[in-house]
Design brief:
The protein is of the alpha/beta class. The protein is built from 4 helices and 9 strands, in the order αββαββββββαβα.
Length: 191
């Protein structure tokens, strides 16, 4: 299933999207995500009917140094800032056409991260989007059942964020083991 999928046709139809050569992925804007996903699933040229994987990636601000040629033809090092963001990445396949994977991404800010849920298009996204919500704090617009899936309801924060810091008085999951609860109440570090 490694036949390449023509991303140029997608970009022509959805002008807000752009191709990421480095990761061979289509970056989809929030406003076009649902329509583009539905079109990829239903259009006879693509028929991307299966989403195998959805994952979140957290990027903090970082400096990138690149060598570029200046006006005099000399190489110089230029520093630029790659801004922080969260990416939600989907890997799509066509079972009928035996094509894929085709990767699409939705990008969002780290403060109040929000993307379109693609669960209404591919049902296999539901639990994986819930996991990204739970661990990264991404709000999925129109998700049918967005709630924590791995952490308990009272857990504060999103532990896969790169800036997450465990609190000193760690919030242990409720447990029936009296010895562990007793050590925690006395302030002993549990290893």
């Amino acid at each position: 299933m490694s036949q390449p999928i023509d991303h140029e046709a997608i970009i022509q139809r959805f002008s807000g999207s752009e191709w990421d050569d480095k990761f061979c992925a289509l970056i989809v804007p929030l406003s076009e995500a649902t329509a583009l996903a539905k079109w990829l699933r239903d259009d006879n040229d693509f028929l991307l009917d299966y989403c195998s994987n959805v994952t979140g990636i957290d990027y903090l601000d970082r400096e990138i140094k690149e060598k570029v040629e200046n006006e005099e033809g000399k190489m110089e090092t230029v520093t630029r800032i790659d801004p922080s963001r969260i990416e939600v990445v989907y890997h799509l396949y066509s079972m009928e056409k035996h094509t894929g994977p085709f990767t699409i991404k939705q990008l969002t800010e780290r403060n109040n991260p929000e993307v379109q849920s693609l669960t209404p298009i591919w049902r296999s996204c539901e639990l994986q989007e819930r996991e990204i919500f739970d661990l990264f704090g991404v709000n999925f617009i129109a998700h049918p059942d967005q709630r924590r899936i791995l952490m308990w309801d009272e857990f504060e924060g999103h532990p896969m964020r790169k800036d997450y810091v465990e609190p000193f008085d760690y919030e242990w999951e409720p447990t029936p083991h009296d010895e562990i609860l007793d050590k925690h109440q006395r302030g002993k570090v549990i290893v």
